[in-house]
């Protein structure tokens, strides 16, 4: 009953790009999304990539993680994959779609999961680190419990109703290694798809990225002395000072201070 | 002290000319010199210039050569001038030509650094053609006036704490329809970026994500995993990358509440698909030092490691230490704070028995609130701290544990 909710899972996989060498590889968060999908042990797992057929060899790294087959929606170079993916996913009707957060190559705007959620009329949750079927007693069909990563290492639990698109956060469980044999044996199934060219991207101009100087928090205005002080002197605190209090008085001062700062309840 | 003393230079020609009387048949010279002694303007008096540039005499003299001679007063005048800083003139944009919306995060009710940067980016777009910046956030707009906001739309206060991104996206879409702004900027933070993408997907518009530089007719961002720079005209929806724009300072805008014909809370009708959001407790010691918010740190002055561990648990703080402690093996290496360890940005740093060596203080420059316990009144850490306690760490730690347990049982 519980695994019925997670019976049909689709994973969207892109081709990554090594940040230093620029070589094609499996994209880090996409691989984690596949790991998460494999760990869910769904009845049906579909892995989909949309893009030019020429790049297909880089996808074998995903097959090496234990996938038997992978669907390749063949699109012309520079085409927008969103429409093709939505059409294909409508046909599959998965209850859960997992993807990485942002592509490592191409536009990498992070819009794709949102557009697909729109197209499938599904809920979208970003930065997921754990997914499980809801374990509340009134767990109806199609409810899922998620854990979402927040900044500063915090976590948030959520319950989602209905079809779900989730993007995976880098702090999700790490992807298993890719094995060579399964990667050779796996099957990539090409499927012809329709797609229009992305006019916005061809309207943009591209050039190699040149690192910019880091933004310094310089204080403007004031006299030279003020600016020098701001730049060189380390910040000193407001300096409430207790000299040789009793242990209890010292502890109380710390406790009250922490409560005041909102650190302790 | 030596007062600036003007030395009168002797200019024999000028003196002679002043004494000459030309009215008679031939020039005559007066006996008594006329008290003119006009200072020759073309002569430099290096001593006077140096005195005018002196801004501080103790502990060592400092000079400000950039000050213009007119404003250069005496040494004392500088301190006064700084004390009553000139009032920043209020900039009013009464009839904006167009609007630029800045949808802020305002995590925990505070205006974050990233929020200020988004307003600075919005100002770039607004100032190019007489537009106005409209900030949208929970809470009132007063705190945003100095960040550069002309108008403010307050979201309901209750939205600050609960996580319902669909409602915020609906509110943003409602504002987009009613104000028809030329641009809408979001911070490219986890929450702000999520909201921006929801709005863009709903509106069917292109999002220009993670803007790195911005002008009235060109915006750039990083693409292809950071290897390419992509430029385009500024689109309607954009997110602003962190630390790409310097926040404004020295400006004051109105941040006047904007009166809307339709209320923003139109989003309440949306049936949220995400629910039951709640924060989970995380093990503080599993967090990395650069991520955590509250650090309990030990130095060479700590010998009672049992109490230290218990205190960390009682406080729910991430444990860390100075280099000496990590070298001695009391804590693992990745728990070292400082120049050769981790640079932390916690909200609160509680330091027991740390002297505050420069290498250690470098690691805590980003910390908001420091509490130090040390037996040495003159330790650098005591100077850095917001609350300093001169006492033995081995006595304070058990007392603090006892106090926390007592309060918890109440
Ligand atoms: C290249 C280089 C890199 C370095 N990088 C780092 C770094 O990344 N991080 C770092 O921390 N250090 C670093 N150091 C070392 C640094 O210079 C100091 O030696 C070190 O920080 C001192 O640690 P401490 O304050 O714990 O110890 P100490 O200097 O020994 O100070 C102990 C303090 O505890 C107080 N004390 C003693 N007994 C008690 C008691 N019972 N109760 C309360 N207080 C007591 C003392 O008054 C003293 O102030 C670096 C040094 C070098 C040369």
From TrEMBL, chain B:
Coiled-coil ranges per UniProt: none
MF term (GO), any: flavin adenine dinucleotide binding
InterPro entries: DHS-like_NAD/FAD-binding_dom, ETF_a/b_N, ETF_a/FixB, ETF_asu_C, Rossmann-like_a/b/a_fold
Residue span(s) of domain Electron transfer flavoprotein alpha/beta-subunit N-terminal: 100-270
A Pfam family that the UniProt record links to this protein: ETF
Domain of life (superkingdom): Bacteria
UniProt GO BP: fatty acid beta-oxidation using acyl-CoA dehydrogenase
Gene3D superfamilies named among the record's database cross-references: HUPs, TPP-binding domain
Keywords: Electron transport, Transport
Stated family: Belongs to the ETF alpha-subunit/FixB family.
Protein name per its UniProtKB record: Electron transfer flavoprotein subunit alpha/FixB family protein
Source organism of the structure: Azospirillum lipoferum
């Amino acid at each position: 009953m519980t695994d019925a909710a997670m019976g049909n899972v689709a994973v969207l996989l892109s081709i990554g790009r090594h940040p230093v060498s620029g070589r094609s590889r499996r994209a880090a968060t996409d691989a984690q999304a596949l790991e998460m999908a494999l760990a869910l042990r769904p009845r049906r797992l579909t892995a989909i990539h949309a893009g030019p057929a020429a790049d297909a060899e880089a996808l074998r790294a995903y097959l090496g993680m234990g996938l038997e087959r992978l669907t390749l929606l063949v699109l012309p170079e520079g085409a927008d994959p969103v429409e093709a993916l939505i059409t294909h996913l409508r046909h599959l009707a998965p209850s859960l779609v997992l993807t990485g957060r942002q592509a490592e190559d191409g536009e990498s705007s992070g819009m794709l999961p949102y557009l697909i959620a729109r197209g499938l009329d599904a809920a979208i949750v970003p930065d997921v680190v754990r997914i499980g079927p809801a374990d509340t007693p009134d767990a109806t069909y199609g409810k899922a419990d998620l854990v979402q990563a927040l900044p500063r290492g915090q976590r948030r639990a959520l319950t989602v109703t209905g079809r779900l698109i989730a993007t995976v956060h880098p702090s999700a469980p790490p992807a298993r290694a890719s094995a060579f044999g399964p990667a050779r044996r796996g099957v990539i199934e090409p499927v012809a798809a329709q797609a229009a060219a992305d006019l916005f991207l061809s309207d943009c101009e591209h050039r190699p990225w040149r690192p910019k100087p880091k933004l310094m928090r310089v204080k403007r205005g004031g006299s030279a002395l003020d600016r020098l002080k701001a730049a060189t002197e380390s910040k000193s605190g407001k300096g409430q000072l207790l000299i040789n209090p009793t242990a209890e008085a010292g502890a109380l001062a710390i406790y009250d201070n922490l409560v005041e700062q909102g650190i302790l309840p | 002290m030596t007062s600036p003393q003007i030395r009168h230079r002797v200019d024999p020609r000028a003196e002679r000319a002043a004494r000459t009387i030309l009215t008679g048949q031939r020039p005559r010279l007066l006996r008594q010199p006329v008290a003119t002694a006009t200072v020759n303007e073309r002569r430099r008096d290096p001593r006077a210039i140096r005195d005018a540039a002196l801004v501080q005499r103790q502990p060592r003299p400092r000079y400000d050569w950039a000050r213009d001679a007119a404003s250069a007063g005496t040494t004392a005048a500088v301190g006064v001038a700084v004390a009553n800083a000139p009032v920043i003139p209020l900039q009013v944009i009464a009839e904006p030509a167009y609007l630029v919306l800045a949808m802020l995060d305002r995590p925990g009710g505070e205006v974050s650094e990233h929020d200020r940067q988004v307003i600075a980016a919005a100002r770039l777009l607004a100032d190019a053609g007489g537009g106005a910046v409209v900030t949208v956030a929970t809470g009132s707009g007063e705190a945003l006036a100095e960040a550069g906001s002309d108008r403010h739309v307050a979201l309901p206060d209750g939205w600050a704490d609960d996580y319902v991104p669909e409602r915020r996206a609906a509110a943003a879409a409602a504002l987009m329809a009613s104000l028809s702004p030329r641009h809408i900027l979001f911070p490219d933070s986890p929450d702000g970026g999520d909201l921006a993408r929801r709005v863009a997907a709903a509106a069917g518009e292109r999002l220009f994500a993670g803007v790195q530089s911005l002008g009235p007719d060109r915006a750039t961002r990083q693409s292809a995993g950071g290897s390419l720079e992509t430029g385009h005209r500024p689109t309607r929806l954009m997110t602003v990358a962190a630390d790409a724009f310097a926040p404004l300072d020295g400006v004051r805008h109105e941040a006047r509440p904007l009166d809307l014909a339709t209320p923003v809370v139109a989003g309440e009708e949306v049936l949220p698909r995400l629910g039951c959001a709640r924060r989970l407790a995380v093990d503080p010691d599993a967090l990395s030092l650069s991520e955590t918010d509250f650090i309990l740190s030990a130095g060479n002055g700590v010998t009672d490691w049992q109490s230290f561990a218990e205190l960390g648990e009682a406080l729910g703080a991430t444990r860390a230490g100075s280099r000496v402690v990590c070298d001695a093996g009391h804590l693992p290496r990745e728990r070292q704070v400082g120049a050769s360890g981790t640079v932390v940005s916690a909200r609160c740093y509680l330091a027991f028995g740390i002297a505050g060596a420069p290498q250690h203080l470098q690691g805590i420059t980003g910390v908001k609130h420091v509490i130090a316990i040390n037996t040495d009144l003159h330790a650098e850490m005591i100077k850095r701290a917001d609350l300093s306690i001169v006492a033995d760490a081995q006595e304070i730690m058990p007392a603090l544990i006892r106090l926390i347990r007592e309060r918890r049982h109440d």
